[in-house]
């Protein structure tokens, strides 16, 4: 399990009032047609923040596999990119205990109060790091959002772990700080 995700799960009782297993039991008593309906249920009925609600719902879905399985599947045939992902998570973990890592089928959302980054193995040779940096012009390693559309305002293309340099980390931190 990713260190950041484990920390978030460990902090869940303090931050949400219940442990992950308790939340999963609550969701098991309901039927939701959509992921967003379950997230909204936790937010409106229990006052859970979006990041925690999204993670709880994601982790409760046995049919989609565990978070670890989702990440593993993203890097099948793209194993050379996994070290880039690992470095990104390591750097993000330094930002604070309020970061929620939410793996999905094709990408990983990085959330504070709202999503501030998206990590996606775009090709066999590149990870696209999407960032929400409203009002920031294209500059340095920051490019247009490309395939992320409105989900992110910018994209950084990473081809090796060494590409996760001080500039990339600074942009990630800026997006994190803006996500309050």
Task: Give an overview in words.
The chain is α+β, with helices and mostly antiparallel strands and 180 residues long. The chain has 2 domains: 3-65; 69-178, Aspartate Aminotransferase, domain 1 (Alpha-Beta Complex), CATH 3.90.1150. It is built from 7 helices and 6 strands. It has helices at 3-16, 20-28, 35-46, 50-60, 67-74, 82-93, 166-178, and strands spanning 100-103, 108-111, 115-123, 126-131, 143-144, 154-158. A hairpin with a 3-residue loop joins β2 (108-111) and β3. α2 crosses α4 and α3 packs across α4 (50-60). The longest helix has 14 residues, at 3-16. The chain is globular, with a radius of gyration of 16 Å. 35% of the residues are buried. The model has no long low-confidence stretch (mean pLDDT 89).
Oligomer: single chain
Sheet-strand content, in percent, reads 15-25%
Give me the Rg, rounded: 16 Å
CATH topology of the largest domain: Aspartate Aminotransferase, domain 1
Number of DSSP-assigned strands: 6
Largest sheet: 6 strands, antiparallel
**Helix and strand composition category:** alpha+beta
| Mean pLDDT level | 89
Approximate shape? globular
Summarize the structure.
With 180 residues, the chain is α+β, with helices and mostly antiparallel strands.
């Amino acid at each position: 399990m990713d260190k950041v995700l484990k920390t978030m799960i460990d902090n869940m009782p303090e931050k949400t009032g219940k442990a992950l297993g308790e939340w999963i039991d609550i969701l098991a008593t309901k039927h939701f047609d959509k992921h967003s309906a379950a997230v909204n249920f936790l937010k409106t009925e229990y006052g859970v923040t979006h990041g925690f609600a999204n993670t709880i719902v994601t982790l409760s879905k046995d049919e989609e596999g565990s978070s670890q399985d989702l990440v593993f599947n993203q890097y099948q045939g793209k194993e050379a990119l996994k070290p880039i992902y690992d470095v990104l998570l390591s750097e993000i973990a330094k930002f604070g205990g309020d970061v929620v890592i939410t793996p999905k089928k094709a990408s990983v959302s990085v959330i504070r109060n709202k999503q501030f980054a998206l990590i996606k193995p775009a090709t066999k040779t590149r990870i696209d790091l999407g960032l929400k940096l409203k009002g920031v012009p294209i500059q340095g390693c920051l490019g247009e959002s490309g395939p992320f559309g409105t989900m992110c305002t910018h994209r950084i293309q990473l081809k090796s772990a060494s590409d996760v340099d001080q500039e990339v980390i600074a942009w990630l931190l800026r997006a994190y700080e803006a996500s309050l």
